[in-house]
Amino acid sequence: MATATTKTKTNVGLEPAATEAIAQALNGYLADLHVLYTKLHNFHWNVEGEAFYTLHEVLEGLYDAVHAELDDVAERVLKIGHRPLASLADYMKNASLHEEPSRAYKGTELVEILLKDYQHLTHSLRETINLAGEHGDEGTADDAVGMLKDKEKAIWMLTAYLG
Ligand SMILES: [Fe+2]
Q1: What domains does the chain contain, in order, with CATH numbers?
Q2: Residue whose C-alpha is closest to residue 118's, from 34, 22, 33, 20
Q3: 45 CA distance to ligand 1 centroid (A)?
Q4: Which of 37, 82, 115, 120 is most buried, by the most CB atoms less than 10 A from its CB?
């Protein structure tokens, strides 16, 4: 069960019941981004083998992108009048992605794990786009479409890496 959000004074004219549902969806996505951010660092540090130099750099690009995106998601929650989750404890409680242990990873193994995570995030984003669309929240839908397109690009590249 997603953590209920706290409302703020900000009112951009959306139905309160709709913003609660949309904010919960965004907070769940925000929680997943934090797990992904940590996991990308894990793999950046622990990748071993022939793919080291390539993936070490690629993973840095991916976690930098996630870092920028999680700020956009949190600020979208505020724009629709709710508070973003802002503690690691809340992220772990609300995330649907899972962490991985600190150990050596071969390139193919870590790319397969990330591919599943990125596919899961596209599924979440499409649900949020539909939810926002149903309630006239074009701003959230537009933000989420941009995020979805970034995930689709990552999925294409991760899939191509696997050959
Ligand atoms: Fe580094």
Answers
A1: 16-95+102-162 (1.20.1260.10)
A2: 33
A3: 7
A4: 82
CA 60 to ligand 1 centroid distance, Å: 7
Question: pLDDT (tens digit, 9 = 90+) per residue, 99-150?
Answer: 999 999 999 999 999 999 999 999 999 999 999 999 999 999 999 999 999 9
Q: Is the dihedral of CA 137, 15, 126, 153 positive or negative?
A: positive
Helix, coil or strand: residue 150: helix
**Please, where are the H alpha helices in the chain?**
16-46, 52-79, 88-94, 107-134, 138-162
Of 94, 76, 95, 92, give the one whose Cα is nearest residue 84.
Answer: 76
The model carries a pTM of 0.96
Distance 143 CA to ligand 1 centre (A): 28
